[in-house]
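=== Given protein ===
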Amino acid sequence: MTTMFFDVDGTLVRWPGEYGPIVREAVERTVGTAEEAWLDRYNDRFYHHFGTFVEDPYRRAFADICAAFDLDADPAELAESLLECEFAAVEPVPGVADAVAKLADRHTLGILTNGIPEVQFGKVERQGFLEYFDVRVASHDPAIAATKPDAAIY
Protein backbone atom coordinates (compact mmCIF):
# COMPACT_ATOMS: atom_id res chain seq x y z
CA MET A 1 0.00 0.00 0.00
CA THR A 2 1.35 3.42 -0.97
CA THR A 3 1.19 6.46 1.31
CA MET A 4 0.29 9.75 -0.36
CA PHE A 5 0.65 13.15 1.31
CA PHE A 6 -1.27 16.31 0.48
CA ASP A 7 -0.78 19.97 1.36
CA VAL A 8 -3.82 21.86 2.65
CA ASP A 9 -3.90 25.38 1.17
CA GLY A 10 -4.19 25.30 -2.59
CA THR A 11 -4.25 21.50 -2.80
CA LEU A 12 -7.16 20.35 -0.64
CA VAL A 13 -8.83 23.71 0.05
CA ARG A 14 -8.67 27.22 -1.33
CA TRP A 15 -10.05 30.71 -0.87
CA PRO A 16 -12.18 31.98 -3.75
CA GLY A 17 -10.14 35.20 -3.79
CA GLU A 18 -7.24 36.82 -1.99
CA TYR A 19 -6.55 36.37 1.73
CA GLY A 20 -6.38 40.12 2.46
CA PRO A 21 -10.15 40.69 2.38
CA ILE A 22 -10.58 37.89 4.93
CA VAL A 23 -8.30 39.71 7.38
CA ARG A 24 -10.08 43.00 6.65
CA GLU A 25 -13.49 41.43 7.34
CA ALA A 26 -12.29 39.97 10.64
CA VAL A 27 -10.94 43.32 11.83
CA GLU A 28 -14.04 45.21 10.69
CA ARG A 29 -16.31 42.74 12.51
CA THR A 30 -14.41 43.26 15.74
CA VAL A 31 -13.30 46.91 15.63
CA GLY A 32 -15.89 48.39 13.26
CA THR A 33 -13.32 49.57 10.73
CA ALA A 34 -9.98 48.45 9.30
CA GLU A 35 -7.23 50.80 8.22
CA GLU A 36 -4.71 49.70 5.60
CA ALA A 37 -1.80 50.42 7.95
CA TRP A 38 -3.27 48.04 10.53
CA LEU A 39 -3.64 45.27 7.98
CA ASP A 40 -0.12 45.77 6.64
CA ARG A 41 1.28 45.70 10.17
CA TYR A 42 -0.75 42.59 10.98
CA ASN A 43 0.66 40.75 7.97
CA ASP A 44 4.24 41.73 8.84
CA ARG A 45 3.85 40.72 12.48
CA PHE A 46 1.98 37.50 11.72
CA TYR A 47 4.73 36.26 9.42
CA HIS A 48 7.35 37.28 11.96
CA HIS A 49 5.64 35.31 14.74
CA PHE A 50 4.77 32.42 12.42
CA GLY A 51 8.40 32.18 11.32
CA THR A 52 9.64 31.97 14.89
CA PHE A 53 7.12 29.26 15.88
CA VAL A 54 5.62 31.20 18.77
CA GLU A 55 2.36 29.99 20.26
CA ASP A 56 -0.70 31.61 18.66
CA PRO A 57 0.89 33.87 16.03
CA TYR A 58 -2.57 35.20 15.13
CA ARG A 59 -3.19 36.61 18.60
CA ARG A 60 0.39 37.81 18.95
CA ALA A 61 0.22 39.72 15.65
CA PHE A 62 -3.06 41.35 16.65
CA ALA A 63 -1.56 42.27 20.04
CA ASP A 64 1.24 44.00 18.15
CA ILE A 65 -1.14 46.08 16.03
CA CYS A 66 -3.30 46.96 19.03
CA ALA A 67 -0.19 48.26 20.80
CA ALA A 68 1.28 50.00 17.74
CA PHE A 69 -1.95 51.81 16.84
CA ASP A 70 -3.43 52.16 20.35
CA LEU A 71 -6.48 50.12 19.35
CA ASP A 72 -8.98 49.36 22.08
CA ALA A 73 -9.56 45.77 20.99
CA ASP A 74 -8.97 42.33 22.41
CA PRO A 75 -6.25 40.52 20.39
CA ALA A 76 -7.78 37.14 21.24
CA GLU A 77 -11.17 38.30 19.94
CA LEU A 78 -9.55 39.59 16.74
CA ALA A 79 -7.75 36.27 16.26
CA GLU A 80 -10.96 34.32 16.82
CA SER A 81 -12.78 36.53 14.33
CA LEU A 82 -10.06 35.92 11.75
CA LEU A 83 -10.28 32.15 12.15
CA GLU A 84 -14.07 32.29 11.83
CA CYS A 85 -13.78 34.35 8.64
CA GLU A 86 -11.05 32.09 7.28
CA PHE A 87 -13.03 28.91 7.94
CA ALA A 88 -16.16 30.47 6.40
CA ALA A 89 -14.28 31.52 3.25
CA VAL A 90 -12.44 28.29 2.53
CA GLU A 91 -13.84 25.82 0.02
CA PRO A 92 -12.61 22.49 -1.34
CA VAL A 93 -10.52 22.53 -4.48
CA PRO A 94 -12.91 21.30 -7.21
CA GLY A 95 -12.91 17.52 -7.48
CA VAL A 96 -10.67 16.94 -4.48
CA ALA A 97 -13.31 15.41 -2.18
CA ASP A 98 -14.12 12.65 -4.67
CA ALA A 99 -10.45 12.08 -5.50
CA VAL A 100 -9.50 11.79 -1.83
CA ALA A 101 -12.35 9.35 -1.14
CA LYS A 102 -11.29 7.13 -4.05
CA LEU A 103 -7.59 7.25 -3.15
CA ALA A 104 -8.33 6.42 0.49
CA ASP A 105 -9.80 3.09 -0.61
CA ARG A 106 -6.43 1.98 -1.99
CA HIS A 107 -3.80 4.05 -0.17
CA THR A 108 -2.84 5.49 3.18
CA LEU A 109 -3.35 9.25 2.99
CA GLY A 110 -1.61 11.96 4.93
CA ILE A 111 -1.54 15.72 5.28
CA LEU A 112 1.81 17.52 5.32
CA THR A 113 1.31 21.26 5.61
CA ASN A 114 2.80 24.48 6.88
CA GLY A 115 0.62 26.03 9.56
CA ILE A 116 -1.05 25.71 12.93
CA PRO A 117 -2.42 22.15 13.31
CA GLU A 118 -5.87 23.18 14.58
CA VAL A 119 -6.28 25.70 11.77
CA GLN A 120 -4.98 23.58 8.90
CA PHE A 121 -6.75 20.39 9.93
CA GLY A 122 -9.87 22.39 10.85
CA LYS A 123 -10.15 23.64 7.27
CA VAL A 124 -10.15 20.08 5.96
CA GLU A 125 -12.51 18.86 8.67
CA ARG A 126 -15.07 21.55 7.83
CA GLN A 127 -15.06 20.33 4.24
CA GLY A 128 -15.95 16.84 5.45
CA PHE A 129 -12.94 14.80 4.42
CA LEU A 130 -10.43 14.93 7.29
CA GLU A 131 -11.36 11.35 8.23
CA TYR A 132 -9.63 10.05 5.10
CA PHE A 133 -6.21 11.18 6.37
CA ASP A 134 -4.52 8.71 8.70
CA VAL A 135 -1.34 10.77 9.08
CA ARG A 136 -1.43 14.51 9.84
CA VAL A 137 1.69 16.65 10.06
CA ALA A 138 1.64 20.44 10.50
CA SER A 139 4.74 22.59 10.73
CA HIS A 140 3.63 24.40 13.87
CA ASP A 141 3.02 21.29 15.92
CA PRO A 142 5.45 21.84 18.84
CA ALA A 143 6.96 18.42 18.14
CA ILE A 144 7.76 19.46 14.55
CA ALA A 145 8.67 23.21 14.49
CA ALA A 146 9.93 23.09 10.90
CA THR A 147 8.36 24.29 7.67
CA LYS A 148 8.49 22.86 4.19
CA PRO A 149 10.86 22.54 2.43
CA ASP A 150 13.07 22.03 5.54
CA ALA A 151 14.00 18.33 5.63
CA ALA A 152 13.14 18.16 9.34
CA ILE A 153 9.40 18.21 8.61
CA TYR A 154 9.69 15.09 6.48
